[in-house]
Hints:
The complex is a heterodimer. Chain A is an alpha/beta fold. Chain A contains six helices and 13 strands. Chain A starts with a strand and ends with a helix. By secondary structure, chain B is of the alpha/beta class. The longest helix of chain B has 16 residues. The interface between A and B is large, with 87 and 98 residues.
Amino acid sequence: MKIAVCVKQVPDTWAEKKLRSDDSTLDRESADGVMNELDEYAVEEALQIAEANSGEVTIVTMGPDRAAETVRKALSMGADAGIHLVDDSLHGSDAIATSYALAKVLEGRGFDLIIFGSESTDARMSVVPAMVAERMGLAQLTFAQKVNVAGSTVTIERATDYGYDTVEASTPAVISVVEKINEPRYPSFKGIMAAKKKPVESLGAGDAGIDGGQIGLSAAWSGVNDFAVRPPKAAGTVVTDEAGDGGIKIAEFLSAQKFI
Amino acid sequence: MAEVLVLVEQLDGSVKKVTSELLTLARSLGEPAAVWVGGGLDDAAAASLAEFGAATIYVADSADLSEFAVAPKAEVLAQLIAEKSPAAVLIASNAEGKEVAGRLAVKANSGVITDAVAVDAGFVATQSVFGGSTVVHSKVTKGTPIITIRPNSVAPEAAAGAGTKVAVSVALSDSAKKAKVTGRTVAAKGGRPELAEAAIVVSGGRGVGAAEGFGVIESLADSLGAAVGASRAATDAGWYPHQYQVGQTGKTVSPQLYIANGISGAIQHRAGMQTSKTIVVVNKDAEAPMFELADYGVVGDLFAVVPQLTEEIKKRTS
């Protein structure tokens, strides 16, 4: 079974994220880059499926040079090979362009499963897995809190607001996973050493057959008019519950605000 | 006036509040047209859509539309874009709504903006990003604007529309029939509103200390008709089910009132609730970063403060 995992390098969760003043894109230079947290669950799920189905796992990423660190991390967890789509012309690509570029890289390689984290912690749109499924005409099995692979049949529990739906499809399929589906493993020392020798294919946009007119900031399907950093919230009232009437004080506040 | 399509959100045939919000918003942008996908549109549901201004209700009803996930809704909307040339499509910003929007954008070769909290008459969307630290105004520049709107962004106001039903026949493509829904499991939620839609959310975190500790959180929530949320520390510890996690890797909520109990206020949590209109914080640690967001805060033991608050609310509302 051939499995691809699409991962994204994002600014560290703890870093202050900001937009660039020149082109309103995310400032990726000003913060440390880490693997998007939910993608770690995607890598782990792929490794578990591969272990049970004698499969191989290929890590796919799109991003600037240093996104290679994220591919290396996934390889050190145990994935077999990497593909890094890197090209200056991709800068500023929106979700639609990203899904196009990823589909171009993924198509024709015979992947049975393409696994994503369900959301990136920077853009937080949660749309790229669905868009890739749409573009490639593949089954969409997204927001999985559980994945079961039996031969060519894949069944997931799709997390919903009311509980979950059970959704079934045949491979090839696109999967996205939510947190808690598994416990991502830490790379071992042996894994880190082995990762250095694993193959990573570096592709330019042209190598992947990507039409330059469909990617980058100039081709984006939406644009930022303006943005502003919100001033810190004005300090509210904070009292200490010394007299033991803290609950009553909150009730008075809620009453004054017409909540009760 | 050009039509503005609103994809209806419903559960077991009853229209969700967020749809009334989107219809209210659509009235400021054009002529609202509700789009109902699947069976079960009864008179009560149709009346509810008309009450909030739907001039037209497009009804795409065939059995196979509800048998498959996400893709059929995108196909119905893509067909309506092609046939009706609407000014925009508005969809609720939840997991499924965003995926429908994403697939629709690819199909209709149109731009998509997610998680908007407002849209002006020029279809400029306002988003609050990076945990509410930055406000962005953006606009779709190609095709039909497809915009997903966060629940609780617009106050629903009734204004009757004709609610004329128009049947839409859709022949689903093979690729829309690839992911089959074979079962639905509804988790017990004790009659509380849905977290993402709730006007009031009461949350507990590490300070709650144990699964049993959530009893006081639930009692407070019930006294206010609120939903219950939890921080990642609490869900990771197994004290409360994971689907109630509010935060960067969980749900994003934007209620009128958010009451955070025993939550320190790590960025992971703040990213999921920072745009709440009014924030109340209870924490025994006066240094907890959560107090920076508080409109009103009490430094104290939540097991003393919260039950007292619950009793006081019951007293005042009985």
